[in-house]
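Aggregate trends can hide what the representation actually does to any particular protein. In the encoding step, the backbone of a single protein was reduced to a row of integers, each denoting a local shape. The record that follows shows the chain in one-letter code together with its fold in token form.

***
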Amino acid sequence: MTHEPTIFDKIIAGEIPCHRVHEDEHTLAFLDVAPLSRGHTLVIPKERAAQMDQLSDEAAAALGLVLPRICRAVLKATGATAYNLLQNNGADAHQAVMHLHVHIIPRYPDKAEGSPGSGLGITWPAGSLEDGATLAAAIASAIGE
């Protein structure tokens, strides 16, 4: 599946500069220009897919292979003690750039939650699981389709 060209397509093509931290045949990683914390890095597939469910198995495998390596490098280079991985799919999930991307957002022990540069603030209003068996069966069935 394809999507309209985005700023990330222009970065991949070299039309817009970025601070690259990794590049291979299938992926590109670079520093976010509006970071939530020091070392905030974006990892994108070079394949044009807006959302995870639209990504080919090959591109998904390449993304999955490189993510742990870049996470380790971000931790080592920044001295962060933890990090969040964030990946949004669709406007209703707060996706702003319609090219699949994963945020690596370093966290630092000396930064209070919500302070500038602290990273990602999270609230988690948990609900309750209803129809678990039925829903699990429906999802499992759809995986093979």
Notes: The helical segments are 7-12, 57-78, 132-143. The longest strand covers residues 102-107. The CA atoms of residues 50 and 99 lie 4 Å apart. The domain at 7-143 is CATH 3.30.428.10 (HIT family, subunit A).
